[in-house]
Amino acid sequence: MPTTAPAFADATASDSALRRFLFGLPGVDAVGLEARAASLGTRSIKTTAKAYAIDLAISMIDLTTLEGADTPGKVRALAAKAVNPDPTDRTTPRTAAVCVYPDMASTAAAALAGSGVRVASVATAFPAGRAALDVKLADVRDAVAAGADEIDMVIDRGAFLSGRFLKVYEEILAVKAECGPARLKVIFETGELSTYDNIRRASWIGMLAGADFIKTSTGKVATNATPANTLLMLEAVRDFRAATGVQIGVKPAGGIRTTKDAVKFLVLVNETAGEDWLDPHWFRFGASSLLNDLLMQRQKLSTGRYSGPDYVTVD
Amino acid sequence: MSENNRLGVFKTYKLYVGGKFPRSESGRVYEVADSKGQWLANAPKSSRKDARDAVVAARKAFGGWSGATAYNRGQVLYRVAEMLEGRKEQFVREVAASEGLSKSKAAAVVDAAIDRWVWYAGWTDKIGQIAGGANPVAGPFFNLSTPEPTGVVAVLAPRKSSLLGLVSVIAPVIATGNTAVVIASADAPLPALSLGEVLATSDVPGGVVNILTGVTAEIAAPLAAHQDVNAIDLTGADAELAKELEIAAADNLKRVRRPQPVDADGSSDSEDWQASPGTDRLTAFLETKTVWHPTGALGAAGSSY
Description:
The complex is a heterodimer of chains A (315) and B (305). With 315 residues, chain A is an alpha/beta fold. Chain A is built from twelve helices and eight strands.
């Protein structure tokens, strides 16, 4: 049964207590945050370190297809790619998970059975989250029953932005209760939260409510994962572990398309949360086209010549 | 202030990649001298990463450029000639300095280069009829061959002819719908970099032509081995470099246009660029697609084709 970490039991006792707690969090220095994220993005990662970063990044990908046009065939193709990303090089690691809509979870589960690649399913009326709680919980139950190992839920941004923080918190608690053994990723849709302070507050609500992962965005709005908002969330999970001993994962999603971007995020992880998070269990990339760029870079490192999109699969 | 006291404004020559004017990723430059060894300007010394970026830009531009109608491509190329005409004086100056020509001879070369561009602009919607057409076959089929652009073409520009030779290798490549990554002459790169400015101010979409300067062998090697380059024109390579690049290019079966040796050392340095070029360079980077289409039951339809 999920419970609030003891150190913060008081914080979630009532709506006003939660509000007091959230507004008591230190304000975010926006300029400093962006400057820090930008300066960490200038690290030069080459040769063997680059090879390590590429393999790590591949193993951290939640290979995602969240389109209205998804078909069972496409999901199966994606699953095959997740298990064996580069058929020309069997040393390529497999991805962490395949991320699909709930109605495709059973297809993905069947295709991935025994492979070690997990099935992640979005739920709770993704991406808007505008549905009644019963409907959202049914969505989660359905996904778990279909074989999802991980559930990606969206928070109720309407409630959050109108200051009903306890409603957001309780909704996450309710979803977590439905997840059973499945790990819960909580999506804040940072692009809709307007301020860095709000992202910090949302991160704490998610962590207090027992999220296993906090995730930036759905990939369906204009602003998705950025180095700055991911850095902020990494600071939150670092601080949360320092206070409670509980480790929580982070998943930036959307807009990460190149190896260079991915490596920048890994630098952020290492420098902010620390090495403990450099593991697919604690850090993920929500991405689809990123994998092809990583594979092309991997081919470049192993052959010495530049590869091209003709040498990776089109998904 | 009198005219004599005015401080001259030196030009920073930059690469032309993806419609933008970046410096070399490496930050390097090299000194360009005129034919008498006097310093003219610094030019960017491209690295393999500049070549990589140029290929990405060229690949991105290929869909739109090859998909444009031949008529439209012709109009766009003609527009380039118009822009060249307007900057003739600058090119005369640069060609004269680079190739050690008198002003009048350089002017004749620039005129020829502009005329060459117009000539290729006219070919865009005619090459299809020359290189393709209906094939007679022994069966109830229409059989049609049509030339299609190969893709991204790496071009080693001629080493001596800095503008006329350059235009004569770029224009045919893009006229047929390919996109180009051009390595300018290492000794005379300035007209090429200025041509980039002309292309940027005409209607040629960014990425269709990308111009790199530096040590030819250093930039050409990663391009020849690049898996996303479809063809390579070795005009500006000497015999030894051409052989090396051709071996690298075989890896993904690139179309290769070898230098046509006219000199004793196997290079094509003294090729006569004033001569009428013919369609060789246009057809060198085309692939023929042939379509069989049934004509239906001729007897039943009562018609004959």
